[in-house]
Amino acid sequence: MKILVLNCGSSSVKYKLIDTVSENVMAEGGVEKIGLNDGFLKFKLSDGYSQCADRCRIRMYRCIRRD
User: Fold this and answer.
1) How far is the C-alpha of 26 from the C-alpha of 43, rounded, in Å?
2) What does pTM read for this prediction?
3) Measured in whole angstroms, how far is the alpha carbon of residue 7 from the centre of its chain?
């Protein structure tokens, strides 16, 4: 079984995807400092691959504002 853990705060959303059989974290990441100029998105996979995109506020704002 896999469990998705979400932590939603006022300016961030973080997550972890956990495999309960092996007790390994399969993926983790989130968006932090939402609404601020130095906001960023990050993620990390179980194989060690990770990515961080900073200064993504304009893109996030455009996605949120679409009607």
Assistant:
1) 11
2) 0.70
3) 10
- What residue type is assigned to position 25 of the chain? V
pLDDT, tens digit (0-9, with 9 covering 90-100), for 7-63:
999 999 999 999 999 999 999 999 988 888 788 888 888 888 888 877 554 444 444
Q: Where are the beta strands (DSSP E) in 1-67?
A: 2-8, 12-19, 24-32, 40-45, 50-54
Q: State how far the Cα of 2 lies from the Cα of 6, in Å rounded to an integer.
A: 13
**What are the CA-CA distances from residue 48 to residues 10, 21, 44, 53 (Å)?**
28, 20, 6, 17
Q: Which bin fits 50, alpha (ψ -120 to 50), beta or left (φ > 0)?
A: beta
d(CA 15, CA 43): 9
Compute the radius of gyration of the chain from its Cα atoms.
14
